[in-house]
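OP here, attaching both records as promised.
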Amino acid sequence: MRPAQWSLPAPLDREVAATLDGQILVLGGNRDGGPTAIVDTIDPRTGAARRLALLASAEHDAAGGMLAGRPAMFGGGAGTATDAVQVVQAGGTTTVVGHLPHARADVASASARGVVYVVGGYDGATLTPDVLATTDGVSFRVVGQLPIGVRYPAVAIAGEKLFVIGGATSGGENAGVDTDAVQVVDLRSGSVSVLAHMPVTLSHATAVVLHGTVYVLGGHVGGAWSDQVATFDPTTGALHAVAHLPRAVSDGAATVVAGTAYLLGGETGPNAPIADVVEIRAPRQR
């Protein structure tokens, strides 16, 4: 784990990241003091960045995924929560291809075998317990409902199960009531349960899967910004601290390119986005 030799084009947090043709795509987020519609493509070898597109609407705190090989953003908020599903098309245009069943921001996602799972979030009044699945951004099915509604969780898939790690359980601007719960969704049966309770609460962290291992990066641990890098045990729900980020950070985005994970941006305090990029490398599982 090390700081990359390059930085983002500007300080950025609460964005969506994706990988396409060996390039990193960064969609939306907070930039220059407010939500941005910019979509940048970045060469991870050099950090060279160029503007690829503009979103149909500027959003932060959205979920992301790939739909038919194209980067997509689900929901998000810029004053109010949206239900829009935005897809960056070839040629640099952005299209609203569909709508979530309900508007939601502060939402997370994970993908497996061409299916994007949209998890948690907040519509401005209530938390959303539905876990949704889609392959096209047009039609959605409800996989299950979380027993503990959360916003800002860390989400990852291991095997046939989706794990919802921590999150905030209250509304309001700061969403300050965090949970220690690890919830698990069986993607085959739709059953949902609380797998474990962590020793401390966790929210605003970023999860990434690298060589089959789930890493949970930074976030608010016990209510404070954290530099923790932890591996997640899908059998027990336990987190095992294995390293430290260069500094405490929350609300970044992560993606994997050619066996290296990249943690992009994030914030080091309220309204304090950064342009840092951290590379995470790990041995392949045998």
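Record two, same layout:
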Amino acid sequence: MKKKGIGILLLSAILCLSGCGDSGSSKSEAMAIRYDNADMAMEEVQTDGIYTEAVAGNSYDTALNSTVDGTESVRSGRKLIRTANLTVETLEFDELLDNLKTKADSLGGYAETYNVNNGSNYNSTYYSGTSAYRKNRNAYIVFRIPKTRVDEFLGEIADKGNVVSRNEQETDVTTEYVDLESHKATLKIEQERLMALLEEAQDLEDMLTIESRLSDIRYQLESIERSIRSYDSQIEYSTITLNVNEVVELTPVDVEEESTWERISKGFVDSLENIWDGLVEFFILFVVVLPYIVLAAIILGLFILILVLIVKQSLKRQKRKMEKLAKEEEVKK
């Protein structure tokens, strides 16, 4: 009986392979040609480190039938996950955050993570390398933006804030995505044929064997569909991570090489500004801690007064003692 159950599973596997073999071989050849051509042209795809947008269809079948004749044909139909990480300075903290949230909503995106630290404006931190002083307010925001509107959103960030650093990455997951789709299709065919075998099965052991295999297939299909949905979400909605810092002076961006005299004059001015900022911070710190200084002075004054009183009393007792001894010496004489 066990041999018969094993035979049924082998039969279903053979039927599945025979049903997928012919179409799979031709598709594999097309995929191989597509990948070889795409890999040869990938270096020509980038423009200033950012991939240009494709206008062709998004289905991978379309990509398989297309010819590699430029940027669009290379990118069309490929599954690309785009991410960007930016550090931004701003003088208008609240206004910038409101503008970015409004812009994301208008583009069909949303803020996946939104953390704002208001901090304290009294404890400023010196921003090393410039004469600026940063306040404590900062934000960490993760935006999800439709892939076709990412460049527009990045442009909004550059217009509204001072971009200190920017890092972008685009990951091609076409191979993984196609493998998942192919595996899913194979499991679907096997599932259908096992369902047909289950309807015809008469033996209880055969039915249990088929049910066990169907349960395993359902589990695999659910796992594959979750992975595909995750890929779809990352592909269709790019991830933009922002670190926003509020400052009182923006970090300058040098676009041209400075002459020796310009560097000297700039360094001299920066030094004067640093000295002035240091004096201002010292004055602010002095005013802030002045109550503690006054309290410490009062305590110290009281301590000194008590100490002086104690010393005076001790000296008086010593003087009286000496006078008493002197009188006793006179009496003895």
